[in-house]
């Protein structure tokens, strides 16, 4: 089932999410719905707050990106915790399904070590770098109540303020189903 994606301006995107237990109701259905929702919107990552749930769950599928096509980087991250970030900051042009029509360069560290549970609640500690790390950092931010635009300088943020306000007011034409805090205009 395709779920509506919560738009910028909704309080659910600004909250720190909580860990879940294996007994969380219909978790496998929720994960399947999130993948379906992400693909329908041509995304490479989606976090639970973006479908209105403040739980520590996000998914990623980098195989949609040319350079990661054969990487097998399709994963579910539950109760994730970034243990280390390392290397020299690099810039990458990020976008977010909750912020349609806005893309900006964001600086992040290139290497991470992360501990998480997979869809079977099996624990992993893994290292990622490059685009894979980037996708994880962006989605991890979501479960911490942080958006990529929060990383921008005050000046850059000022320049996109109007666009952000329009999105929060439902004045946008995303090509996928969205849920706006004040309804669609
Ligand atoms: Ni996002």
Helix and strand topology:
Elements: E1 5-6, H1 27-40, E2 45-47, E3 57-61, E4 74-86, E5 90-94, E6 104-108, E7 111-117, E8 123-129, H2 130-143, H3 154-159, H4 161-168, E9 178-179
Parallel strand pairs: 1-9
Antiparallel strand pairs: 2-3, 3-4, 4-7, 5-6, 7-8
Bound molecules: nickel (II) ion.
Polypeptide structure, described:
The protein has helices at residues 27-40, 130-143, 154-159, 161-168; strands at residues 5-6, 45-47, 57-61, 74-86, 90-94, 104-108, 111-117, 123-129, 178-179. Strands 2-3-4-7-8 form a 5-stranded antiparallel beta sheet, with helices on both faces. The protein has a two-stranded parallel ribbon with strand order 1-9. A hairpin with a 5-residue loop joins strand 7 (111-117) and strand 8 (123-129). It is globular and about 45 Å long. It is of the alpha+beta class and 185 residues long. The chain has one domain (5-179): Peptide deformylase (Peptide Deformylase, Alpha-Beta Complex), CATH 3.90.45.10. It contains 4 helices and 9 strands, in the order βαβββββββαααβ. Bound molecules: nickel (II) ion. Nickel (II) ion is lined by residues 96-98, 138, 142.
Sequence of secondary-structure elements:
EHEEEEEEEHHHE
* Low-confidence regions: none
CATH superfamily: Peptide deformylase
Global Rg: 16 Å
State the share of residues found in helices, binned by percent.
10-25%
CATH topology-level name: Peptide Deformylase
CATH C-level class is Alpha Beta
Shape: globular
Proportion of residues in β-strands: 25-35%
Query: What is the name of the CATH architecture?
Result: Alpha-Beta Complex
In this structure, how is the largest beta sheet organized? Answer: 5 strands, antiparallel
Question: By helix and strand content, what is the structural category?
Answer: alpha+beta
Q: How many distinct beta strands? A: 9
Give the overall pLDDT as a whole number: 95
Cofactors and ligands present?
A: nickel (II) ion
The total domain count is: 1
Q: Report how far the terminal alpha carbons are from each other.
A: 25 Å
Strand order of the largest sheet: 2-3-4-7-8
Counting DSSP H or I runs of 4 or more residues, the number of helices is 4
């Amino acid at each position: 089932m395709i779920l509506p994606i919560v738009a910028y301006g909704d309080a659910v995107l600004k909250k720190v999410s909580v860990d879940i237990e294996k007994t969380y109701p219909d978790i496998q259905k929720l994960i399947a719905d999130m993948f379906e929702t992400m693909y329908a919107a041509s995304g490479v990552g989606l976090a639970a707050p973006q479908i209105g749930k403040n739980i520590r769950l996000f998914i990623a599928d980098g195989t949609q990106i040319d350079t990661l096509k054969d990487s097998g980087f399709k994963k579910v991250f539950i109760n994730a915790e970034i243990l280390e970030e390392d290397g020299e900051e690099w810039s990458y042009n990020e976008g977010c399904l909750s912020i349609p029509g806005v893309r900006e360069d964001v600086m992040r560290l290139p290497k991470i070590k992360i501990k998480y549970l997979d869809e079977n609640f099996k624990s992993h500690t893994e290292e990622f770098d490059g685009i894979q790390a980037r996708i994880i950092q962006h989605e991890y931010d979501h479960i911490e109540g942080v958006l990529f635009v929060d990383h921008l300088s005050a000046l850059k943020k000022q320049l996109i303020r109007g666009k952000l306000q329009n999105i929060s007011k439902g004045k946008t034409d995303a090509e996928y189903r969205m849920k706006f805090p004040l309804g669609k205009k």
